[in-house]
Specification:
This protein is an alpha/beta fold. It is built from 5 helices and 6 strands, in the order E-H-E-E-E-H-E-H-E-H-H. It has one domain: Rossmann fold (3-Layer(aba) Sandwich). Helix 1 crosses helix 5 and helix 2 packs parallel to helix 3.
Length: 178
């Protein structure tokens, strides 16, 4: 049975909703899935999984500090083990999916792209095949004006049930492609 790991950090619940939708889709497609927060995943080896999914909100164009620190520690660990190689050759059967929630009140999705690219680069260095880089529009909690008057219009309530259903379906497709 193929296995997947979903690691996420969420401060307002948006990224958590997406992580659970991904987990549900992967499980529905037949994968065994572990769902963790970074503080509970320090001893986990990404290479034990067929698919590793990592998600974070975009905070000032970067992954949240708990995710950034977690990925940095994994990079150092794998570097010390000699798994980080010049030219980052692909490791057969190892795949990654990164996902990023964002509200983009000022410049839209461009506010999230650097965070997603940052997370992706860790997996590129590990030699994983990155099967997806997902950006999920989400409500900005704490300031209604940033959820109603931003570049993306009224984003209150996002991600919606329909958004999460699509994410679940997309995760099923990813699982079937492994």
């Amino acid at each position: 049975m193929k296995s997947a790991l979903v690691i996420y950090w969420s401060s307002t619940g948006n990224t958590e909703k997406v992580a659970y939708a991904i987990r549900d889709g992967l499980e529905h497609a037949g994968l065994k899935v572990d769902l963790k927060k970074p503080q509970d995943a320090a001893g986990i080896d990404f290479f034990d999984y067929d698919l590793v999914c990592v998600g974070s909100p975009s905070i000032e164009w970067q992954p949240a500090k708990p995710i950034a620190d977690f990925l940095k520690s994994k990079l150092a660990f794998y570097r010390n083990q000699g798994k980080i190689k010049p030219c980052a050759p692909k490791v057969q059967g190892k795949n990654a999916l990164v996902f990023c929630t964002y509200s983009g009140p000022h410049t839209g999705m461009d506010e999230a792209t650097p965070a997603g690219k940052c997370m992706r680069q860790y997996f590129e260095h590990f030699g994983f095949n990155v099967v997806g880089e997902w950006y999920v529009l989400s409500e900005f909690h704490g300031r209604e004006d940033l959820s109603t008057k931003g570049r993306l219009g009224d984003i209150r309530g996002k991600p919606t049930a329909e958004d999460l259903a699509k994410i679940k379906k997309d995760a099923e497709q990813v699982a079937k492609s492994l």
